[in-house]
Write a structure and sequence with these properties.
Number of strands: 31
Pfam family, one: Laminin_G_3
Keywords: Lectin, Signal
Number of helices: 23
GO molecular function, one term: carbohydrate binding
Structural class: alpha+beta
Protein name: Concanavalin A-like lectin/glucanase superfamily protein
C-alpha cells in the first residue's frame, strides 16, 4: 500500500499549478466531430508530428517548455486535436500554434497535474470525443501519459501516487439477483432465441466461429458465454439487446422487433431468478462496484523514462496499444493463439503480438541515444519446461538476429542482447542460475537492464538475482533498425512461448534497484482501491465533514482472472486529518456480494482489532471471491460482527449429519516394493552393501526400469527384467567375496563339482540360510518354504547337468543363480 495518501486539504502553493479552473473546463471541450460517439477509424499514421513547426514567442518558463514537449507536440496534429482546438478554433485552444504560452494557459483549464487520469481532457476523450484510435480507453491512457510526462518534469521524477478521495456515489447495498449456477432456466428462456438466430456464427462448431459462443450446442458453454451479455439489473441495457436495437447487428428481420424478442426472453429469465434480500440483522458498510474504485495500478510506478508501455487494458480486439505517450506509438497486432484475459493481460499459446518495423524503430533510436535500457514485464509462464529459449519479449528478425530478447528455458530467464562483444543472435546469453529456479509458473515481475558499466542484469520480483554477466559491456552500433518488436514468439513464429503477459514497459534508462523494487511493490493489472464507507458505524463526529463521509475501510481489489476477484490487505483510512480514534473495535469482517455474504473466501472473518489511528492496517491477507455478474455490475459490501457500538450475533448453522462414506473401488491387499525399497531389501538379504561399486553402477543404470509405484496393477514384465539383473549382481558380489560367502553359506564346498557339492547336505547348506532370509514369518499369503525349496531344487538339478566336464567355477555359478532366483522373486518383491 505504499505511495497511498489520504486526501488532505491541498496547500495553496500547489493549487495554481495542479488544478486551475477545472469547473470551467467541463463545458469548454465541446464536441468537435459529431458529438461524443466513439471513433472507430484509426487515423493514426504512427509517426511523430508530421511537420507542425512552431514559430511563435518562446516558452516563458520551464513548465511551459515541458508542456510543449510532452503534450502540445503530440496533440497539435490535425488528426488529433489541432483541427479544432488550434488557433481561432474551439475553446479551449490548448494546441494553438501562434503562442505556446497561451496554449499552456488554455491547457491548464482541462488538466489535473496532480492526478492526470482525472483530467477533463482525458475523461472527454475516454468518452469517445475524437479518439484517433479504435479504442477510446487507449486514447485516454495515451493522453494520461502525455500529461504525466508534463507533470513529472525532470528525469529523476516519474513516481506517481494514488490519492484516496471520497467516492462520487455512496450507496447502501440493495437487493440483487445473481446468475443461477444451473443453466436450466437459461435453456428454457434465452437460449432458444440464441440457438435459432445466432448459432451460425456464435458457436464453437460454426464454420466461421465467432466468440462469444452463446449459441453453442453445449448449453453450459453457451450459458457461460451469455452471462457477460445479460444485464440482470437493467434488461434493456443487455448487450444482446443493444446489439440488435441500437447497433443493428445481424438482425434476422426487423431490428426493433428482434430486439424486443430478445429483451422479452431475457426478462423471462430474470423474472425466474429469486431476489436476494440483504439480511436486515447484518451490520453493513456502504456498497461499491469495482469500476467505482480508484485505480490502484496508476500509482507508485516509476515510468519517467518509459518509451513504450503496454498495459492491455482494452480487453478485446486485434490491437494491444502502446500508451507510453512516446511517439510513434508502438501498437502490437495480435495473431495466432492469443487471447485477452480478465484483469488486463494477454494469454499466449501459439501466437504473437507484433509491432511494425517502422514503429519499432523508436526503440532502436531512443535506446542507442542513451546506450542503456531496461525491459520490464509482469509475466506468468504456463509451465517450466519451455526452451529454445522460448521468446517472451524480443526485438529481432528471427532466431539468429536480435537486438535484445527476454526468453525462457525451463526454470531460467535468459537475456540475449547484441552489442560489440556478443554475436548477432545475442549469444552468449545471461541466464539465471539453474539451482535457483527463479522462473516459476506464477505471476512474476521481471526486469532486465543493460548499461555500459554493469552490462546485463536480471531482477525477479524486485530483487537482483546475483547472476553476473561474463561478457564485457560493448557499444550498440550494430543494432539493426529494421527489426520488429514482438511478444510471445519470434518474428518468424518458430519459438512460441506459453503464458500470460500483464504489463510490458521499455525504458531508455537503467532502472535503479530502488525503482525496480518500487515498480514491483506497485503491482500490476486491473486493480482498484474500493472505499467502503463506515462513517455511519463509528461514533466519531469528524467522520463526516459537510455531509461527506470521511471514514472508510479500504481494500485493494483486482480481477484475479476471468472468474474471480482478489481482495487484498484491508486497511482503515480517515480522509479527515483532524479525526482522532480511541480503540474502536472491529471484529469478524466479511465480504458481501450482490445482497448476501460470499459463501467462500471469508479470510477476514477472524479479524479482531481496535482502530486507534487515522491510517491502520487490518490484515495482511488476501482472498478470492467468485465473479458473478461482472466488474460493472457486481456490488460489494462489508459485514461485521462488531464495529464500534454496533454488533451482530452470528449463530453458526448446525452442520448436517455426514453421509456414510461411499464404497470405493476394490483395492488390492498386496503391493510391490519400489526401486529404492528393492535395492535396500536385496542389500539386507545378501549382506552386500548398496555402495558396492558394481551394484551401485548397475542400479543407477536400471533404476528407471524398476517399479516406481506400489500398486501391483502397475507391475510389468519390464520391471521383472530389471529386478533379475540387480539380483544377479548382488548374488555375484556375495559369492565372489570368499569371506561373505563363507559366513552366509557355512560348510558348503564351492570347489567341488556340482554332482558332489549339491548332495542333500550341500543343498541344505545353500537353501536353508537363503530361505530363512527371504521368507517372512507367519505371512499366510506368501509362498511356503516347501514350495520355494522345490522350485530351487529343480533349478539346481537343471543347472548341474554337465557330467564330469563341468567348468571349475560351475558350482559357484549355480549358487549365484539359485541366490538370484530366490531374492529376485515374489517373496522379496510383494509386500
Amino acid at each position: 500500500m505504499n505511495k497511498i495518501q489520504a486526501l488532505l486539504p491541498m496547500p495553496l502553493s500547489m493549487k495554481w499549478l495542479k488544478t486551475l479552473a477545472m469547473a470551467s473546463g467541463l463545458t469548454l471541450l465541446a464536441a468537435c466531430s459529431g458529438g461524443g460517439a466513439s471513433v472507430e477509424e484509426n487515423n493514426n499514421s504512427g509517426q511523430p508530428n508530421p511537420g507542425t513547426n512552431y514559430s511563435g514567442p518562446p516558452p516563458q518558463s520551464e513548465d511551459v517548455q515541458r508542456f510543449k514537449l510532452a503534450v502540445w507536440d503530440n496533440l497539435v496534429r490535425a488528426d488529433r486535436c489541432g483541427s479544432c482546438h488550434g488557433t481561432g478554433g474551439q475553446t479551449p485552444q490548448f494546441v494553438r500554434t501562434d503562442d505556446i504560452n497561451l496554449a499552456y494557459a488554455a491547457a491548464n483549464t482541462v488538466v489535473n497535474l496532480s492526478r492526470p487520469a482525472e483530467s477533463r481532457m482525458v475523461i472527454k476523450v475516454g468518452e469517445g470525443h475524437n479518439c484517433w484510435l479504435a479504442s477510446n480507453g487507449a486514447c485516454a491512457d495515451t493522453i494520461t501519459s502525455y500529461i504525466t510526462n508534463w507533470a513529472g518534469g525532470s528525469v529523476g521524477g516519474g513516481a506517481t501516487e494514488v490519492v484516496l478521495t471520497p467516492p462520487d456515489n455512496i450507496f447502501m447495498p440493495g437487493d440483487a439477483r445473481s446468475f443461477p449456477a444451473d443453466s436450466s432456466l437459461f435453456a428454457s428462456t434465452v437460449y432458444p432465441v440464441l440457438e435459432q438466430y445466432c448459432s451460425r456464427c456464435h458457436s464453437d462448431t460454426a464454420g466461421n466461429a465467432q466468440s462469444p459462443f452463446f449459441g453453442s450446442d453445449d448449453i453450459d458453454l453457451a450459458y457461460s458465454a451469455a452471462q457477460s451479455r445479460i444485464n440482470l439489473d437493467n434488461v434493456p441495457l443487455s448487450r444482446l439487446v443493444v446489439r440488435l436495437r441500437s447497433e443493428f447487428h445481424n438482425c434476422w428481420s426487423n431490428c426493433t422487433e428482434n430486439a424486443n424478442t430478445m429483451e422479452q426472453a431475457i426478462q423471462s429469465f430474470v423474472d425466474g431468478i429469486p431476489l436476494t434480500e440483504v439480511d436486515p440483522d447484518l451490520v453493513i458498510s456502504a456498497a461499491n462496484r469495482l469500476v467505482d474504485g480508484i485505480v490502484a495500478s496508476s500509482g507508485g510506478r516509476h515510468d519517467a523514462n518509459a518509451i513504450a508501455r503496454w498495459e492491455f487494458k482494452t480487453g478485446s480486439g486485434p490491437i494491444a496499444y502502446d500508451t507510453s505517450g512516446v511517439e510513434p506509438a508502438l501498437n502490437l497486432t495480435i495473431s495466432g493463439g492469443v487471447e485477452w484475459v480478465g484483469g488486463w493481460g494477454l494469454q499466449f499459446t501459439n501466437g504473437r503480438a507484433q509491432g511494425s518495423t517502422a514503429n519499432s524503430k523508436k526503440l532502436h533510436d531512443l535506446i542507442k541515444a542513451t546506450g542503456e535500457y531496461s525491459v520490464e514485464a509482469w509475466v506468468a509462464p504456463a509451465n517450466v519446461v519451455q526452451d529454445g529459449p522460448a521468446r517472451i519479449i524480443s526485438y529481432s528478425a528471427g532466431e539468429d538476429r536480435t537486438n535484445f530478447t527476454v526468453g525462457q528455458t525451463a526454470y531460467n530467464y535468459e537475456f540475449l542482447m547484441r552489442h560489440a562483444n556478443t554475436a548477432g543472435d545475442g549469444m552468449p546469453a545471461l541466464a539465471t542460475a539453474d539451482d535457483d529456479e527463479r522462473l516459476q509458473a506464477t505471476l512474476q515481475h521481471v526486469v532486465m537492464t543493460y548499461d555500459p558499466i554493469n552490462g546485463r542484469r536480471i531482477y525477479v520480483n524486485g530483487e537482483f538475482t546475483g547472476d553476473m554477466d561474463d561478457e564485457d559491456p560493448g557499444h550498440l552500433n550494430d543494432w539493426d533498425s529494421t527489426f520488429a518488436f514482438v511478444l510471445g514468439n519470434e518474428t518468424d513464429g518458430q519459438l512460441p512461448w506459453a503464458g500470460i503477459v500483464k504489463l510490458v514497459a521499455i525504458h531508455n534508462r537503467v532502472l535503479s534497484d530502488e525503482q525496480i523494487a518500487q515498480n514491483f511493490e506497485a503491482g500490476v493489472g486491473e486493480r482498484y482501491f474500493l472505499l467502503f464507507n463506515v462513517s455511519h458505524l463509528l461514533d466519531v463526529p469528524e467522520c463526516t465533514v459537510n455531509s461527506v463521509p470521511q471514514c472508510y475501510i479500504v481494500i485493494e481489489v483486482s480481477r484475479f482472472d476471468s472468474y474471480g476477484y482478489l481482495f487484498d490487505k484491508p486497511f482503515f483510512a480517515s480522509l479527515n486529518s483532524a479525526a482522532s480514534f480511541s480503540d474502536i473495535p472491529v471484529q469478524s469482517m466479511r465480504i458481501g456480494i450482490n445482497g448476501r455474504e460470499a459463501p467462500v473466501g471469508q479470510a477476514y472473518a477472524n479479524i479482531d482489532v481496535e482502530i486507534s489511528q487515522a491510517r491502520q492496517d487490518l490484515s495482511t491477507l488476501g482472498t478470492v471471491v467468485a465473479l458473478e455478474k461482472g466488474p460493472s455490475a457486481d456490488e460489494f459490501f462489508l459485514t461485521f460482527d462488531r464495529i464500534g457500538a454496533h454488533t451482530h450475533v452470528r449463530l453458526d448453522p448446525v452442520p448436517p449429519t455426514p453421509l456414510p462414506p461411499a464404497d470405493g473401488d476394490p483395492v488390492s491387499a498386496i503391493g510391490v516394493r519400489t526401486f529404492d525399497e528393492i535395492n535396500a531389501s536385496m542389500s539386507v538379504l545378501t549382506t552386500v552393501e548398496q555402495t558396492d561399486p558394481n551394484v551401485q553402477a548397475l542400479f543407477q543404470t536400471i533404476r528407471q526400469g524398476l517399479p516406481n509405484d506400489e500398486l501391483i496393477t502397475t507391475f510389468s514384465a519390464a520391471h521383472q527384467m530389471g529386478i533379475t539383473q540387480l539380483a544377479i549382481q548382488y548374488c555375484n558380489a556375495l559369492v565372489e567375496d570368499t569371506t561373505k560367502r563363507s559366513a552366509y553359506f557355512p560348510g558348503f564346498n564351492f570347489s567341488a563339482q556340482p554332482g558332489v557339492a549339491f548332495n542333500a547336505t550341500g543343498r541344505n547348506q545353500i537353501l536353508d540360510p537363503l530361505l530363512a532370509r527371504i521368507l517372512g514369518v507367519n505371512i499366510s499369503s506368501q509362498p511356503t518354504d516347501a514350495s520355494v525349496r522345490t522350485e530351487l531344487n529343480a533349478l539346481i538339478d537343471q543347472l548341474s547337468v554337465c557330467g564330469t566336464s563341468c567348468p571349475a567355477n560351475k558350482t559357484a555359478s549355480i549358487v549365484k543363480a539359485v541366490c538370484a532366483a530366490g531374492i529376485g522373486g515374489a517373496a522379496m518383491l510383494v509386500q
